[in-house]
Amino acid sequence: MSFDLVFFGGTGDLTWRKLMPALFQAFRHGKLPAGGRILAVARDERSDADYRQFIRERFVDVDSSKRPSDDEFDRFASMLHYRRMDLSQPTDYAGLKSWLDERGADTVVLYLATSPHLFPVICEQLGSAGLNGPKVRVVLEKPLGHDLSSAQEINRVVRSVFSEQQAFRIDHYLGKPSVQNLMALRFGNALFEPLWNRQSIANIQITLAESLGVGTRGDFYDRTGALRDMIQNHALQLLTMIAMEPPSTNDADAIRDEKLKVLKSLRPFTPASVARDVLRGQYKAGTVEGKAVPGYLDEVKVPAGSTCETFVALRTEVQNWRWAGVPFYLRTGKRLAARDAQIVVNFREVPHPIFPGTPRANKLVIKLQPEDGLELHLLAAKGAGQGDALSPVSLDLDFDKAFPTDRVGAYERLLLDAIAGRLNLFVRSDEQEQAWRWVEPILDSWAQDASDLKTYAAGSWGPPAASAMVARDGFAWAEEQ
């Protein structure tokens, strides 16, 4: 299958930092279909050779195990091309169409790795130029909009040019191997399904923690914040995959129908419940990995006196038969104690403990990063001479060890799926809009009053009030258990 993959924003940070290394890994693994061309478009004047050198220089920053040899890069770079485009000029789109039509590839993938405010104008110009035929797919990078109304407007324009089957709304967390294994864990094994309900599960925690600060992206981050950057998309997508009902098939729409049902079942927020069940914070100076780091307000390009949140913790419930009364806790933040993305399923305690000591409930930990695997925490007897006391033990599955061959990374998997036309791991427009609809009361409440913004020391696990919120239900975050 021949393909043409076009990156709008071809010299941008996302393209050279994430997308090109992912494509190289697909090439190295022999997964990238033969006969493909990769075209980067941007405003700069460059030749193909200039662009290839631009990418070569940036591959120096790639992890050493994934860095290409000179020969490998030369073979990969032969696929790379560059074209100057002004995204507002119809003649430039006509020129792009001519370039694509010269060969007539089987599939054309147009990846919009630009600021979301450019999505409507790009899509309208693509439609006017006739770059929306049945063999064309458009990939939309998150964040898709800034709120519900902007997301709806982007989707309105996209739908006016492309069919829903042509639109690939990307959330790179859905490409992570551990996230894909959520489906296998729940629907490919008989072990957990009888326990996957309110009778057996006490609470579920989703943590997306980063030890890094905002770096040089202070101006972008200050317009976005942790709720828009991580909760509205990544965390909610993980929640839907944990809480969804079994789909009838592995078809993309069957899966996305069930995810949408979860989003519609989330308990809606009111001003009172926002005040009670949502916490926002902002990091101040502290120590991370033994190194002193500045507070958010002292970061580059952050406006003085900003009230942007760098931490969010919230409590919600899925109001349906399976999950009624089970709290779901979501949290994310920058400059936290560790880089740690995980889902913790805490099971209920045994109904009548017969062993001495404090009962300890079982839990399943689904590790997303930096490790990739599963841990099942149990209680076991130590052996002779220990009496009846039980000790915690864990069954640890490290996917990297279980599958020692090169594993496919998130962007690598999603790029290959876009080329192949597989929509299972992409977000449908109604899902994405429902997620915005659910977080909008929080945004509205915060816009009216910023007095609830807490601070936390860099290198901690966030404001102490986040622990108090969980303790209110008689539970604790995973690191406090």
From TrEMBL:
NADP(+) binds at R43, D86, L87, K142. GO terms for molecular function: glucose-6-phosphate dehydrogenase activity. Pathway: Carbohydrate degradation; pentose phosphate pathway; D-ribulose 5-phosphate from D-glucose 6-phosphate (oxidative stage): step 1/3. It catalyses: D-glucose 6-phosphate + NADP(+) = 6-phospho-D-glucono-1,5-lactone + NADPH + H(+). Belongs to the glucose-6-phosphate dehydrogenase family. Substrate binds at H172, K176, E210, D229, K334. Keywords: Carbohydrate metabolism, Glucose metabolism, NADP, Oxidoreductase. Catalyzes the oxidation of glucose 6-phosphate to 6-phosphogluconolactone. This is Glucose-6-phosphate 1-dehydrogenase. The lineage of its organism: Bacteria, Pseudomonadati, Pseudomonadota, Betaproteobacteria, Burkholderiales. It comes from Ideonella lacteola. Residues 183-477 form the Glucose-6-phosphate dehydrogenase C-terminal domain. Coiled coil: none annotated. The active site is at H234 (proton acceptor). Its EC number is 1.1.1.49. Residues 6-181 form the Glucose-6-phosphate dehydrogenase NAD-binding domain. It comes from the Bacteria. Pfam families: G6PD_C, G6PD_N. InterPro entries: G6P_DH (IPR001282), G6P_DH_C (IPR022675), G6P_DH_NAD-bd (IPR022674), NAD(P)-bd_dom_sf (IPR036291).
